Amino acid sequence: METMTGAKALMTAMEKEGVKQVFGLPGGANLPMYDEFARCNIRHILVRHEQSAAHMADGFGRVSRKPGVCFATSGPGATNILTGIATAQADSAPMVAITGQVPVAMIGRDAFQESDIIGMANPCVKYAFQPRTAQEIPSVVKKGFYIAETGRPGPVLIDIPKDVQQNEAPMEFPEIFKIRGYHPYSDPDIVNVERAIDMLLSSQKPVILAGGGTIISSAFAELQAIAETLMLPVVTTFKGKGAFPETHPLSLGPIGMHGHAEANKIMSEADCVLAIGTRFSDRSVGTFEAFEKNLKIIHMDVDPAEIGKNQTTQVAVIGDVKVSLRVMVKLLLQKAIKKTEENEWVKHVKETRAYWRENLKLHPGEMGAAKLLRKLRELLPKESIITTEVGQHQMWASLFYDVIQPGTFFSSTGLGTMGWGFPAAIGAKVARPDVPVVDIAGDGSFSMTENSLATAVLEDIPVIVFLLNNFTLGMVAQWQRTFYDRRMIGVDQGKCPDYVKLAQSYGAQGIRAQSMDELDKAIKDALSSDVATVIDIPIDPEEDVLPFVAPGTSLKDMILPS
Amino acid sequence: MWAILSILVENKPGILFQVTHLFRSRNFNIDSISVGVTENPELSKMTITTIGDEKQIDQIVKQLDKMIDTVKVERLDEHKSVFRELSIFKIKIRNANDSMEINKLANAYGGKVHDVKKDSIMVELTATPDQIKAFEELAKPFGIIDVARTGVAALQRSGAD
User: Fold this and answer.
1) In the predicted model, is pLDDT for residue A490 greater than 80?
2) B12 CB near a chain A CB, below 8 Å?
3) Superfamily name and number for B82-156
4) Active site residue A33
5) Using the beta-carbon criterion (under 8 Å), do B10 and A181 form an inter-chain contact?
6) Spatial separation of the C-alpha atoms in residues A343 and A250, rounded to whole Å
7) Residue A226 scores a pLDDT above 80
8) Does the structure show a pLDDT above 70 at B161?
9) Which contacts (CB < 8 Å, 24+ apart) does range B101-108 have?
């Protein structure tokens, strides 16, 4: 047993977990941890605001499916990462956030930069630790990483008082540990999988609804095998976008508030759904009562608490969805079930798909959102990773950017955190430096974390910001146009800042694209650039996102462009 | 619907906060709560009584079960469990007759009388919440000065699975 400080034990334990980098910002209460960067093989990536550190760790975690790590000091450093933690929790992203805390003896005395971060974060973490002795640190790190990445992933907070970082103790790094109350996986019940198959086969209009869990457990091949074997059309939630290649003839894309017209239509007509790794969010299904009416629901999920939470389920299969789908594939093979013939339903699905892909009315201008996103798709290699900010551009990305390679599209879908996309793109690029990473952005959302340009430039992380700039908080403006009689309050961003000059002032590349030709060139320049690039694309502030399912209505009530 | 939940939890700081916060954030109700350490000092047992429809109670059990610091969550069948709550009533008395009446009432419910004073009397009653409620109704006309209740403690009867 080696004697070392708590801070050294922390870094050693993280190295054992395979951590290669930490996103963070130092301060008084985490200096002992920071000092260890001088003596370990973990890279430190400095941010300009702790919220961005959390989003970077989140982006890294979603892409690599290993917890991303962020560091913050006590007090305001810790409270600044809360939004990032809540975002990761809402989207089940693996993350380990490590905060400094005032010394144990000072806790509860309202010390300088003291905040009860455990109390504040508890409702939005998967688990929180506050080791009170240095010896606890190795096992806390081990358990923390295990909890963050297993079962339904999520953020884990480790809050370490400064003296616990400084104190020396003989350290043991356990390989085996026990968490009595945590059983992240259960084996899928074969009987229920058989019932699910029977139900799908006996339905007239079955569909698959693939949620974010399909991407988290990378059950892409299994999903495709089942869709093709049973000739099932595939719709997704927004979080599940790209769980299935969107160029596939059975793919209809996301359902929901700004779902694809064809997806909302077919979902509304279906009589049976195989729902995979989804929590039936209100943004996806509209009103709960209308959605489940005349619909048989088969629900596969790793989290038993999701069964029956928002929708009444006829068959539930609990377990990692990749495992459950494998069991289903195996049973289909054993029973030699294969539906190759195009029945009436599949024919109808394909016609609906073709109709709406051709005939959805789009913005007439040269720089309409659909044209811009289709141009981006055309020029990006299929393995490129997309993150998005939150707002109109996000929904346009959902509507008009086809994901070809599954698991390459990420967004803050649950919490809807503006400012997420850019730092998450930086985290994603750190996880996959070999592929282009593009943040599809809007000006309002990008401006919330734009100072991450400093991180992208100084740390050589060349991501691309594809900025659909309408100088407006566009989604809010759309609601004000639609529901508030065009009274536009608090949405005008002025023409401020100039995003090209902003990018340049950080040492990044800034390009303005005002025509399709300029955009074509800008994307190509960005793809070959060694530095981060902001492509500023002025667009019409009056363009709405359509189709639209208004809140409190059902998918059937979708408003289409007129 | 009234339900009794028996929850075995890790005996560590903050666990009561975590459990009660879950009820708040998920929009559930706590009717009563009692907590005590078990025969294993690493574990505590919480007994929570709650009110909700079947679907809500199913969700409460699942959400509690999902918590990492809960080791076991059981919904007890009230017909197959022993469940009791301790209550202490301080009741107004005006004369010896009142005192005698309250003594009788306490006896009828298996309660014990303490701290008999000139103008008040205390009754300790361990019973089911329904019985405590019934006792309270009968004691009300005398004038209840104060009440303290512990919340329900419950265990499933052997062989009642």
Assistant:
1) yes
2) no
3) ACT-like. Chain A, domain 2 (3.30.70.1150)
4) no
5) yes
6) 13
7) yes
8) no
9) B101/B142, B102/B139, B102/B142, B105/B135, B105/B138, B105/B139
